[in-house]
Design a protein that fits this description.
alpha/beta; Arc Repressor Mutant, subunit A; D-Maltodextrin-Binding Protein, domain 2; 2 domains; 7-stranded mixed sheet; two-stranded antiparallel ribbon; 11 strands; about 45% helix; globular
C-alpha cells in the first residue's frame, strides 16, 4: 500500500492537538482558523488511511491508533528539528560535535531534558542523536558509528567500557477490572511467567531486564505480543489485550489517571541500570560526555548516584 508522505506541518498540528486536548486550542496556538485545522486533520486521516481522532459532542479525543501515530510523529518532528539544527551548525562551521546513540526509553523520557541542558551550556555544540534498542546502540558504539551510547540493560558487552549513571524501574500494569488489579496480594513470579504478557522486542533493555529477572527464578517470559514501541504496547494494554511490562516512567500518565493500574510483584525486582558505554577503539568526545553526564546528574527522574566524570573518562 503506497501512502503519500504527510506534510510535517500537519503532523505538528496533530501533535499539538494531543498536547492541548482539543482542535480549537491547537488551532489557536498555531494561529490557524479552527475550520482550516479540522480540514487538515481530516485530510491527514485520509492520506494515512487511519482514523486518528474520535469526534463527538463532548469534543475530540485520540483513537488508540491516533496515540501511536502521535508518538511516531513526535519522534519524526524531533528528528527533523535535529536535522535542521545540525545542518545550520554545519553551515556555521561549528567544530564541537558529539555523536551519541541512545536506547528508546532514554530517548523518549530522559534524553530531551539532558540535551536541552547541553544546548544551554554549549550552544555551539552539535549533538547528533541516533535512537535504537539497547543491543543496537551497543553495536553502533562497537562499530565506531557513534562516540558514546546510553543504554538501559543489565549486561554490557565485554568489548565496551561502561559506567552506571543511574537506574530506573519496570512496572507491570493492567486494566482496573483485571483480576490482578482486584487482588489484595502481589502477583507471584509463576503467575507472571504463565500470563500472556505484552512486552518489548528481543534486544531492548526492557526485555532483557524482564528475561533475566524471570530466568534467575527458573522461569521464562510467555509473550502474547512483542512490539518495538512503548506507546503501541500501552495502546494494546488499554484495549484489554493483557498485562503490559514497560518502564514505570513510560506509564506515568496512565497510572496517574487510573486508566491502567500497577501490579505489585512478590519477590521480584525489575530495577535496571542506565549506563554510559563507549569503546576504547572509538574516538571519545570527553567535552561532550562531560556536558551530557552533568545534565544527567541533575535529573531527578533517575535513581542512583551518578559518578564524577573524571572516573568515567579515565
Amino acid at each position: 500500500m503506497n501512502l503519500k508522505v504527510p506534510d510535517l506541518s500537519d503532523l505538528h498540528l496533530l501533535v499539538t492537538v494531543a498536547a492541548t486536548g482539543s482542535i480549537g486550542q491547537a488551532a489557536s496556538e498555531l494561529r490557524l482558523a479552527q475550520p482550516s485545522a479540522s480540514r487538515r486533520l481530516a485530510s491527514l486521516e485520509r492520506s494515512l488511511r487511519v482514523q486518528l481522532l474520535h469526534r463527538g459532542p463532548r469534543g475530540t479525543t485520540l483513537t488508540p491508533n491516533g496515540r501511536v501515530v502521535v508518538d511516531w510523529a513526535a519522534t519524526l518532528l524531533r528528528a527533523t528539528e535535529q536535522f535542521t539544527n545540525s545542518v545550520v551548525a554545519l553551515g556555521q562551521e561549528r567544530n564541537a560535535l558529539l555523536n551519541v546513540a541512545v536506547s528508546m526509553t532514554i530517548a523518549e523520557y530522559y534524553a530531551p531534558n539532558w540535551l536541552a541542558k547541553v544546548r544551554s551550556t554549549a550552544p555551539d555544540m552539535t549533538v547528533t542523536l541516533s535512537m535504537a534498542n539497547s543491543s543496537e546502540v551497543m553495536s553502533m558504539v562497537e562499530s565506531g558509528r557513534v562516540d558514546i551510547g546510553l543504554v538501559e540493560c543489565p549486561q554490557i558487552r565485554p568489548s565496551l567500557r561502561s559506567h552506571v549513571i543511574g537506574a530506573d524501574e519496570l512496572a507491570i500494569a493492567v486494566l482496573p477490572d483485571h483480576p490482578w488489579a482486584r487482588s489484595n496480594r502481589g502477583v507471584s513470579i509463576e503467575e507472571l511467567a504463565s500470563a500472556g504478557l505484552l512486552v518489548r522486542e528481543q534486544g531492548s533493555g526492557t526485555r532483557e531486564t524482564l528475561d533475566q529477572a524471570l530466568s534467575a527464578s527458573g522461569f521464562t517470559v510467555r509473550a502474547s505480543l512483542e512490539l518495538a514501541s512503548n506507546t503501541a504496547l500501552k495502546s494494546a494494554a488499554l484495549a484489554g489485550m493483557g498485562p503490559v511490562v514497560l518502564p514505570a516512567i513510560a506509564l506515568t500518565r496512565e497510572l496517574e489517571n487510573r486508566s491502567l493500574v500497577e501490579v505489585e510483584l512478590e519477590d521480584l525486582s525489575l530495577s535496571r541500570p542506565l549506563s554510559l558505554v563507549w569503546s576504547n577503539a572509538a574516538k571519545f568526545s570527553s567535552e561532550g560526555a562531560v556536558l551530557l553526564l552533568n545534565a544527567a546528574r541533575g535529573d531527578r527522574q533517575i535513581r542512583g548516584r551518578i559518578p564524577r566524570l573524571a572516573k568515567v573518562a579515565s
